[in-house]
Amino acid sequence: MAGALPDRAVLEAVLDLAARAPSPRNSQPWRWQVDDAGLHLHADWSRAVADSGAGRRDVLISCGAVLDHCTVALAAEGWRPHVRRFPTLDDPGHIALFEVIEHPAQPGPRELAAAIGSRRSDRREFPEARLPAGTLELLSVHAARRGVDFAVVPRTRWGRNERGEVALRFPGRAVGDRSANADGAVLLTLGTAGDDEIDRVRAGETLSHLLLAATALELASCALTDPLHDGRNRLALGCEVFDGESYPQVLIRVGAAPETPQAPGGSDRRSLQQTTTWTSN
User: What's the start-to-end Cα distance of the chain, in Å?
Assistant: First the structure.
């Protein structure tokens, strides 16, 4: 049975750490409510970076990422969370309700929580270097355990455009050999059998977990959703890497960190006062 929540100081530390979850253009489209029922996560639709269905998808993926970050942070503080996703049937913006019980922190969550502080969305071009043996297999297992499909995007199907942005190349415009915009990263995609709200949240949770696992392995990474905003590219990618049986939800660049003097800095985050409401009966 779920017990009382941690005290406010612990919750503030947890939510402050969870706020480092990735979101498109650092939009942070979520808000928290703490009350006698537990810790609630809500989507903040007003912070969507696009008005289209793709913008709504991005909000849900971001909420899934912050949900997983929060789960990791709670576990590292000695609290086992039980998460009820979409607990209010008539409110699709009520993403999750956390109920927790005290439980000794384990090494796994502690390692992932430590990775939260050092993870960055690294948009630089990565050097040509093989990933450590077993890396892709490990990430694939993490995804499979969460019911999310995992695939490597063929190198001929992506590159960087004239603005230096990662772009997919479908149909019939395959990227050839490396150019001045060469990038030695491996591009991954996460897909789901369905394409509704719960699928997108699950994809976001898995995205969070894979990014933290990559960071713990001292790899650079960056999550991307913009290339999937083009519906034709998204459909073509799903057909190519998932045989049309899964919907691509997000892309992940992963690879060796560039050997440059300055690593990418952290992004500004909204304060707890801006994202969190504390109420009680």
Answer: 21
- For 279, phi then psi, to 5°, come to -135, 160
**pLDDT tens track for 5-58:** 899 999 999 999 999 999 999 999 999 999 988 999 999 999 998 777 899 999
Q: Is the pLDDT of residue 182 over 80?
A: no
The H-assigned helical ranges of the chain are 8-18, 53-76, 107-118, 135-145, 197-216, 231-242, 272-275
* Mean pLDDT estimate for the chain: 91
Q: Say if strands 158-160 and 94-102 run parallel, antiparallel, or are unpaired.
A: unpaired
| Residue 18 and residue 76 in contact, taking contact as beta carbons nearer than 8 Å | no
Q: Are 144 and 44 in contact (CB under 8 A)?
A: no
The upper half-sphere exposure of residue 130, i.e. CA atoms within 13 Å in the direction of its Cβ, equals 3
- Structure tokens, 191: 């897909």
247 SS3 class: strand
- Say yes or no to pLDDT of 109 above 70: yes
Distance CA 124, CA 275 (A): 30
Tokens of 267: 């992004």
Question: pTM of the entire structure?
Answer: 0.93
